Amino acid sequence: MTALEDIRHKIDRLDDEIITLLKKRLEQVLLTLKEKEKIEDLGREDQIISKLVGRSEDNETEKYLTEIYQTIFREGKRIQKHLKENEINEKI
Hints:
Elements: H1 3-31, H2 42-55, H3 59-91
């Protein structure tokens, strides 16, 4: 195995772990639907971003993580909204 193949193999394993963790995160996000009135909680999002910024080692890492998490937040809200709309439509 070449060095490049080895690196790519490690990236593939990390991607598998990330996918598993993102699925678990989404499961928890969906559970919040039962516990809160509004889908969007900007205060919570700011809290998470602030924690990321505190753990970032440089501006590039901070930007990278912030953009990723903003996408995670956006998609989580989109899925929550979709589920909530389907729930309302089923009651009608």
